[in-house]
Amino acid sequence: MNLYNLGDILSKLSKALQDQELKNVQMPFSLKFDRFFSKPIYRKSLDIITILFFTLVIIGPIINIFSTIFLNIPSIYHDVFNDELIGDLQWLNILNSLGVSFSIATIAVIVDIVIAFPIAIILTRYDFRGKKILDALVDLPMAVPTSALGFSVLLFWGIFGISPGMILIILGHIVFTFPYIVRNLKIVLEKAAILYEDAARTLGASGITVFRTITLPMMKEGLIAGAILSFTRSLGETGATLILSGLVETAPILIVGFRRQLELPSASLLAGILIAISITLLFSIKFFSRRGSFSVKRVWPNLERTLSRKTLRHLRDILAIIILIIVILIPSFYIISRINEGNLFEELFLGQDYKWVYLYMSLMSSIQIGALAVIINLGFGIPFAFIITKREWGKIITILDTILDIPLAIPSAALGFAIFLFWGPAGIGLFQPGFFMILFVHVTFTFPYMVRPIIGVLESSDVGIEEAARTLGASNMTVFRKITAPSIKQGIIAGCIMVFTRSLGETGATIVVMGNIRTIPVLIVDWVEANNIASAIFASTVVIIFSAFLIFALRAVTNRRTKMIAKN
Amino acid sequence: MPKIKLINITKTFDEGKVLAVDNISLTIEDGDYVFLLGPSGCGKTTTLRMIAGLEKPTKGKILIDEKDVDGIPPEDRDMGFIFQHFEIFHHLTVWENVTFGLEMRGYEESYIIKKAKKALEIVGLLNYADEFPSIFGNPGLQKLGIARAIATGAKILIMDEPLGSLDPKVSKVFRHELRNLIKDLRLTAIHVTHNQEEAMAIADKIIIMRAGKILQMGSPYELYENPNSIFVANFLGETNFLQGFVLKLLEDNTMQVWIRLGGPKLLCENKQHKFNLDDNILIAFRFEDVYLFPKNYNFEDSYYDWSKMQFFKASLDSSRFVGATKRFYFSLDNGDKFVSVKPGSYEENYQKGDEMIIAVHLNDIHVFKTPKNLFHELSLS
Lengths: 568, 381
Hints:
Order of helices and strands of chain A: HHHHHHHHHHHHHHHHHHHHHHHHHH
Shape of chain B: elongated
Helix content of chain A: over 70%
Structural class of chain A: mainly alpha
Structural class of chain B: alpha+beta
Number of helices of chain B: 9
CATH superfamily of the domain at 112-249 and 278-338 in chain A: MetI-like
Radius of gyration of chain A: 28 Å
CATH architecture of the largest domain in chain B: 3-Layer(aba) Sandwich
Oligomer: heterodimer
Largest sheet of chain B: 6 strands, mixed
CATH class of the domain at 112-249 and 278-338 in chain A: Mainly Alpha
Mean pLDDT of chain A: 81
Strand content of chain B: 35-45%
Number of domains of chain B: 2
Distance between the termini of chain B: 36 Å
Order of helices and strands of chain B: EEEHEEEHHHEHEHEEHHEEEEEEEEEEH
Largest sheet of chain A: none
CATH superfamily of the largest domain in chain B: P-loop containing nucleotide triphosphate hydrolases
Distance between the termini of chain A: 53 Å
CATH architecture of the domain at 112-249 and 278-338 in chain A: Orthogonal Bundle
Mean pLDDT of chain B: 88
Strand content of chain A: under 5%
CATH topology of the largest domain in chain B: Rossmann fold
Number of strands of chain B: 20
Shape of chain A: globular
Largest interface: A-B, 34 and 37 residues
Radius of gyration of chain B: 25 Å
Number of helices of chain A: 26
Low-confidence stretches of chain A: none
C-alpha cells in the first residue's frame, strides 16, 4: 500500500463521517406536494382540461354558428331574401352594412398608418423631454372604453358642426385604432438594430433612403400586424359607432339591431359572414405576411437626399405631432373639460330614475365581470400558454396557435351572438342572457389577450434555468413555482391588465347577451341615446380616469420587464 | 461508486428525421474526468443531456452504478450540471442559488448552511453570499454555477461547455482550477467541449465524436500519438496532409510511398500489412515534427542517427513570428503545401524562396487510405 492510497482511504473515511451528520432528511410538505403533482398523469389531465376549455369556449360557438346557418337555410332564405313584405331588403341591408364597415376600416387604417409612421419614429429614435408622457398619451385610447371615447369625439367635433354620420365614425375609429399601429411599429423599430441603419448611412444613403431600403423591410411584419389589428378592431367596434353613426349602419350595429328585434336568422347569417371574413383575413395574413416585399432596388439618391434635409424632416415631425394632437389626443380627452355641463348634480342624484344607482351598479358589474374574466383566463391561460410553447405536438400546436387569435379578429358583436346561440336558450341552454353570459363572452374574447403576453415571456425566457433547476433536484411543479413563475410574472400581470381593460371597454358583445344587466360602456351608450348628456359625460370621465390609471400600471409593469431583460 | 455506462444509445429528433446520436456505447469509470470532444452538431451535448435525464434516448440503455436509469427524471438522478450560459437564477441571491439544490432534497437547515458555505468557500464567493448574481461578470457567474452544482454533494458532475462563455485567457487559468476542484472532491466528471486544446490540457480521457458516432477514445497522449482516423489526426493538434500512393512494399513492415505529381518519395510504416501496392494514401505529420535544414547542411558532421529520417526538398514561401512559435510555410515541387512550427527562439536567416532540406521521422508519419470523400474527411465539422 503506497502513500497515495492511504490518503485516499483516509479522505473517504472522513467523507463518510461527514455524511453521517446528516440525520433526519425530511422533505417539506410543499415539495412533497409538488413532487406528487409532477407525475405525468396530472400534467396530461391538466392539458386535456385546458384543451377541452379551449374547444368548448372558442371553437364551439364558431362551429356552431356555421352549423346553425346550415341547418336553418329555409328560414334564413325566407327572412333575408324572400320576405312577403320587404322582399330581399334585409340582404341589401346586410351587403350595405358590410360595405360601410369595410370602407370605414380601410380609410381609418390608411390615415392611421400615415400619422403613425412619423410618430413611431419620433418615439423610438429621438430623445426629448416629455417623450414618456407623449408615449403614454398615445397608448391611452387603447385602454379607454370605446363608447366613452366615441362620446368625447362626438362632443369635440360637434363644436365644428360635424354631425353623426360616416365622417364622424371615421374620425372616431381613427382615434381608438391608432394606438394599435403605433405600438406595433414601435416594437419593430426598437428591435430593428440601429446598427444596420448606421451601416447604410456610412455607405452613403440619405435618411429617407435608409428608411425605405433598410428600416421598412425590417418593419414589414410589425406594420402588417398593426394594420390587421387596427382593421379588425375598426371592423368589429360597436360602442363608439352606436354613438357616432346617426343613420349609418355598420355590420356590428346591424347585428345589435337584429338581436334587439329578435330577428335571429338574419343576425346569425350576418354574424356568420363576418366571422368567415375575419377568419379568412387572419389566415391569409398568417400565410402571406412572410412573402411580398417592398421595392428596395430602385434608388433616387438626389430626390431622397433633398427630402431628407433637416428642415423638411422637422417640418414633417411637427406636422405629424400637430395632426396627432388635433385628430387624436384632443378629441380623446375633450370630454373631461365638459364635466360641468348642464346640471349634473340634479340629473345624476336628484332625478326620479336614480341615475347614480345605475352608474354605481353598472360600474360594479363591469369590475366584477372584468375581475372574474381575469381569474378564469388566468386559470386556463397559463396552462394553455405552456401547451403552445412547451409541448411537442407538431402540427396541432400550429393549429391551436392560429385558432387562438380568432377572437382577436372577429367583431365582438358577432362573437357575442355566436356564443349566445351556442350556450343560450337556442343552443345548449346553460345560460340565460345576463351576468354569467356576459362573463362567458368576455372570457372568450379576452382569452388571447391573456395568453399572448404569457407565450411571449415564455418564449423569451430561458429554458436553461429550468433545466438547471431540475438537475438540482427540483420536480416539475417546483420548477414552475420557484423558477418559471417569477421569471414570467411580468407577462402574466401584463396579460391580466390587458384582459381587464378590454373587458371594461367592450360594448358590442355585451349588448348582444346582457339581458337586464348593464356594464359601464353600455350605460354610456344608453344615456347618450336617451340624451342624458351631463350624466353620460360624468360616467365617461370616470372610466377614462380609471382606464388611464390601468394603462399607467401596465406601462410600469412592462417597463420593469424590459429593464430586467436588459439587465440580464 | 458512480460508474456510467451507455449501451447502444441512439437519439433521433423530429420523428426520426434528424439522427443526433448513432448507436454509441461507452463506459466512464468512477473518478474519471472524461471529455466529449467534437465539432458542433456531433451529438456530444445530446449525449450529455441524455445522461443527465434532460433528453430521453430513442434506443439503448444508460446504466449508472449498474442501475438502469430509464424513466428517472433529472431531479432524481443526483448529478451536478454546469451550463455554458451558467443558467443562474437571477431572481435569487447567490446564497439562495447555492442552497436551491439542498433545499430541494429536504435537508435540515444546519446541514444546508454547512454545505452551501463549503461550496461557496471552494469557489471563493463566500463574501458575496447576500448579493444578487447580477453583480458578477462571466467568470463569477460560472463560479457560482459550479458552487451550485457541487453543493448538493452529487458525485457526478456534468458540464456542457463550462468554459465556453469565458474569455480565452480567463478560461485557460480557470480550467486548471476546475480540474483541481474535481480531483479534490473525487467526482466523476463529464465535460463537453469543441475546444481540443482545453481537452488536451485537463482531461483524463477524451472521447472524440463526429456525426453522432464515437471515432476514438483514450488518454490525450494516446489520441495525439496514434490517431485512428484522418479526422482525429486533423482535429487534435496541427497536421500536414499530403496525397500519394504506395510505390513499393518492403520488408520489416515498411513501404515506399510517392507523393502525387512527382513529389518526393518517402518511407512509411505499414503495420499489419494494411496497405497494398498502388493504394492511394494520405500521409499526415504534425507541424512540430517537421525539421528544417539549409540546403548546404553537412549531415556527416553530426552524430545524430539519421537512419530513420525521411529527407526531401521544399522551397520556403513565407514565415511568421507568432510569439511563442515561428511558423514556416513551404511548397513542394508539385505545388503541395505544408507547414513547420519551431519555437519562437529558433535562430535562422532563411529567405523567402530558399530551397531547403526537410526531414520527418519515420515514426511521426501516419498513413491513411485516401477516402472517397476526402474533402469531407478533412473538414473539421
